[in-house]
Description:
7 strands; single chain; seven-stranded parallel sheet; alpha/beta; Rossmann fold; binds zinc ion; about 230 residues; binds magnesium ion
Amino acid sequence: MTQRIPIVEKILSANDRLAIENRARFDAAGVFTLNVMASPGAGKTSLIEKTVSALKGSLRIGMINGDIATSLDADRAAAAGAAAVQINTGGDCHLDAVMLQAALPQLDLARLDLIIVENVGNLVCPAEFQLGTHKSVLVASIPEGDDKPYKYPGMYRGVDAVVINKIDLLPYVPFRREFFKNGIEVLNPGVTQFELSCRTGEGLPAWLAWLVAQVSSTRQNSVSGHLAS
Length: 229
Ligand code: MG
Ligand code: ZN
């Protein structure tokens, strides 16, 4: 009997390969792309609206919205001043690189500085599907409760930033800030965090400054890449 030697190799999934293609297109165009994830109702669309309103004078912004059935959120982003594209996932509870790639022809990448991707509201599987975006952010909110990092560790582990929205509700809702933050720290040590309220505007400037810095560094990398080639 011949011994079989198992060969273990890292095989990229079809989704991961398309994510790499998506990223290459973003890099070639010098556009910074952000994947925004959250549970339903945490305030993704409100944060995007505020962000577009604040930055549309200085940045050219595109928005890709993943929703199970409606275009309400894309409509709000368009009203705020973004070039908005709607992806109806047809019941799927997350976006993937295939859906994102299918939406890209509707945006003129070379004429944009920033693309915000609003993922489907869901705290489980969006983290498992790479889209090819440069960075990802998780929007949490005070009324959801302070136990979310413990219940949905996969979402907190992979993100580049955490936004804690609705801090104006802290006086009214039981929320142990330290417990919440300790949960994040264990899963994602040192991750960038913002505490803000889309309703009052408190804390928004720090978030906007971070985002603008990401856009600038992507554009500079793209420019130096073009000069080098
Ligand atoms: Mg929304
Ligand atoms: Zn899903």
